Automatic annotation (TrEMBL):
It comes from Saccharopolyspora griseoalba. Keywords: DNA-binding, Repressor, Transcription, Transcription regulation. SUPFAM superfamilies: lambda repressor-like DNA-binding domains (SSF47413), Periplasmic binding protein-like I (SSF53822). Residues 3-57 form the HTH lacI-type domain. InterPro entries: HTH_LacI (IPR000843), LacI/GalR-like_sensor (IPR046335), Lambda_DNA-bd_dom_sf (IPR010982), Peripla_BP_I (IPR028082). It holds the Pfam family Peripla_BP_3. The lineage of its organism: Bacteria, Bacillati, Actinomycetota, Actinomycetes, Pseudonocardiales. GO terms for molecular function: DNA binding. This is LacI family DNA-binding transcriptional regulator.
Length: 320
């Protein structure tokens, strides 16, 4: 049988209640007694029963997070930044992947609720069909939507101003003819980037598929058969890298014959051939703000929902 809290209390010469309060960081324990308890726990190799402590305190010190696709470098980096922020508050992250399927997302959210996470960070995979999962979570625990959001749902959201980023990009290009290569607007970023492109007066030449390198390659082939524009504006960096790869395979010179831009500034963007001009999402800032809002909700400091749109920045490289 392992070392128990009773053993620690006896070794320190204090009551079990005092030992428990001292190890959980509660008030009402003299510093001398706290020091003795901590020293006794260290000497005996005491490991607290986290599950039992969670049942008593009704908190698990865990935050759930559901992302559309962990293999996407943008989401992977965002998860890393969120985890860094949570470490400062002694909370752990439980991560789940929806694979852009609302039904899978619903099951993943329910699984996290069953594990009694204290709160949820959700990147909803669909701007409409993710509402069921979001509502189920919001009815039980604090929820913050991150990066993507569900249309019209009253829950806090933290992300970037996609339309501002698109305006910045098009202003930089200052091209007479551009074509937008993006994703079907099933999620909020796909929709807002498409809207931003059109509202900036760039025209109606758009090709829509999904946020994948394969779609970028296919779209590049179509552009070559239909006639190259002055610039190709891509809905994200993964699409743009696919466009660059296909152009390179076909012998198209970038940026001499056509300019190519992305959106997000994933870690691989500067490794493109040539290095990709893009819009950088400040992921550390986004993660910090999302975790701050979540902590405020858990502490009862903030009870109303809010939307925070952070302005992204242009990163000009060789491709455009």
């Amino acid at each position: 049988m392992g070392v128990t809290i009773h053993d620690v209390a006896a070794h320190a010469g204090v009551s079990v209640a005092t030992a428990s309060r001292a190890l959980s960081g509660q008030r009402g324990v003299r510093q001398a007694n706290r020091d003795k308890v901590v020293a006794a726990a260290r000497e005996l190799g005491y490991e607290p029963n986290v599950v039992a402590a969670s049942l008593r305190s009704r908190t698990t010190h865990t935050i759930g997070m559901v992302v559309p696709r962990i293999g996407n470098p943008f989401f992977a980096t965002l998860v890393e930044e969120v985890e860094k922020q949570l470490q400062g508050g002694n909370r752990s992250l439980l991560l789940a992947n929806s694979d852009y399927q609302p039904e899978v997302e619903r099951r993943q959210v329910q699984a996290l609720l069953d594990r009694r996470v204290d709160a949820l960070l959700l990147i909803p995979c669909h701007r409409e069909r993710s509402e069921e999962a979001l509502a189920a979570a919001a009815a039980r625990i604090p929820v913050v939507q991150l990066d993507l959001r569900v249309d019209g749902f009253d829950a806090s959201w933290v992300g970037v101003d996609n339309e501002a980023g698109m305006r910045e990009l098009l202003g930089h290009l200052d091209a007479r003819r551009t074509v937008f290569v993006g994703a079907e607007p099933t999620d909020s970023s796909a929709q807002s980037r498409l809207d931003g492109y059109r509202r900036a007066g760039a025209g109606d030449e758009v090709l829509l598929g999904d946020f994948s390198k394969e779609w970028g390659e296919k779209a590049a082939g179509r552009l070559l058969s239909e006639g190259l524009p002055e610039a190709v504006v891509c809905g994200n960096d993964v699409i743009a890298l696919g466009v660059l790869a296909e152009f390179a395979r076909r012998g198209v010179r970038v940026p001499q014959e056509v300019r190519v831009t992305g959106f997000d500034d994933i870690p691989y963007a500067e490794l493109g051939q040539p290095a990709l001009t893009t819009i950088r999402q400040p992921q550390a800032e986004i993660a910090a703000e999302a975790v701050r809002v979540l902590h405020d909700r858990l502490a009862g400091v903030e009870t109303t929902s809010r939307r925070t749109a952070i302005t992204p920045a242009l990163v000009a490289r060789s491709s455009g």
